[in-house]
Amino acid sequence: MSKLFDAIEEGNFRKIKRILKGGVDPNFPEHNTALHLASKFSNNYKLFKLLLSYGANANSQNLDTPLHYLCTFQPNRIDLIRLFLKFGGCVNARNMNTPLHYVCMSKTTLEVVKFLVSSGALVNAQNKFTIFIVNRKNIHLFHLCVYNSSKKEIIRYLISQGARIDARNGKTPSHFAFDENIKDLLKFYNSIQEDFKKLFKRSELCDLVLKIENKQIQVHSMIFQFRIPEIPYQKIVGILEKKKLEEAMNFLKFVYYGRVKNLEKLKSMIYQDLGLGENYIEKKEGKQGLVSDLKMLYLNEKGQDFKILVGKEIIKTHKLILFARSRLFRGMFLSVKDDSNSVHDYTQKPSKSIQQFFKFLYFDEIPNNIQIRIAKDLLEMADFYQINKKSYLFLQLEEILQNKLI
Question: Which long-range contacts (C-beta less than 8 Å, at least 24 apart) are formed by 7-13?
């Protein structure tokens, strides 16, 4: 076996082929197999194909698989990664990291990340320990990208594929951001949470008053209804009024904008008092949880109390959502008495543009294939309705218009 290893280090293709023909097992268990060694020292595609053709196991482990080695030492060799997967390599194989963890810590390209994800790599995979961030367990891929100041396009792509920007391992990815440009980028992605955080601090449109430890806290019943639809909001209010103020506020911040701080006390409320499932917090936390619930609210049409006339069509929406996301609507609702039967005429833009704008307020995203005309309309509408200047909408539209106008 040592002769095979020597030949691999030398890069002597003919010698390697002769040894393999002689019956040497490329999976002979030393610390590393022949494929591990080649992944570290060789860039010869034919050599890898030869080893795999003679039965080298793409999933053999010393702790790392050969694919881990390849993604560490040659993270831009998409042709070799493709070859490994063709011969049965597991794209989510774990030592304590997946191959994509290593790629995200390297100076890789967007093309490689896209290929791994399209091949099934999990964008929210966690490890148990990493040598890159000392004393940190449960590291998400997104933590590594941010910590490593990876290219913005990789971070944006991972988010588009569902990477959790609020993933926790004691800290969120923003705590690991040293690059100011990436810090700003994360603020754009989290802007919808900021809108609902501000809503939590406002008393307007509140229709409930909680009495907790001799304090009165004004809240919006609709928040409970679309964030925790499984439980009647009256029951939630009754439970909250029996809690200490700190615990109640911890729960309310979670409901309003997905913040998770005191996890153990939150678990007590969610699992024991409300009897909800063990993965409930994970489903509801952060931006992803908030947006997921807003999408359901938009689609199921419950509680709609604001009507917009667009051409001949009436769009029904929720006053509270418009209040949270638009300064113009906020001012309008505070200055004008309105009832749920009123219909407001909006004809300053084409109906498709108006529909897409109001849909964005819930979905916090727009289609990448959006027409340039509609994209320009959305920019004008976002400015007119005074959407948060750090809104994800502006970032998306900027990228889309740049790409379409190049």
Answer: 8/34, 8/37, 8/38, 8/41, 8/42, 8/47, 9/37, 9/41, 11/41, 11/42, 11/44, 11/47, 13/44, 13/46, 13/47, 13/50
Question: What's the CA gap between 99 and 107, in Å, rounded?
Answer: 14
What is the H or E stretch that residue 401 is in? helix 392-405
User: Is the torsion defined by CA of 311, 317, 320, 325 positive or negative?
Assistant: negative
Tokens of 216: 């009165």
DSSP 274: S
Q: Is 205 exposed, middle or buried (0-12, 13-18, 19+ CB in 10 A)?
A: middle
Question: Is 42 in the same domain as 184?
Answer: yes
- Measured CA to CA, the distance from residue 224 to residue 227 in angstroms comes to 5
In the block, tokens 């595609």 appear at 45
Q: What is the pLDDT of residues 138-179, one digit of tens each?
A: 556 666 666 665 577 787 788 777 776 665 554 554 444 444
Q: pTM of the prediction?
A: 0.70
Is residue 113 predicted with pLDDT exceeding 70? yes
Distance, CA of 332 to CA of 202 (rounded, Å): 16
What is the arithmetic mean of pLDDT over 115-123?
A: 89
pLDDT digits over 77-112, tens only?
999 999 999 999 998 887 777 888 888 877 788 899
- Residue 358: count of CB within 10 angstroms of its CB: 22
Residues whose CB falls within 8 Å of the CB of residue 247, separated by 6 or more in sequence, listed in order = 262, 265, 268, 269
Domain count, the chain: 3
CA distance 65 to 399: 38
The answer on 213 and 147 residing in a single domain is no
User: Is the model's pLDDT at 188 over the cut of 80?
Assistant: no
Do 129 and 21 belong together in one domain? yes
Answer yes or no: do 185 and 208 share one domain: no
Amino acid type, 223: I
Q: Are 121 and 112 in contact (CB under 8 A)?
A: no
What letter does residue 176 receive in the DSSP assignment?
A: G
Last-in-domain residue among 139, 161, 191: 191
pLDDT(55) > 70: yes
- In the listed set 250, 273, 296, which residue is the last one of a domain according to the structure? 296
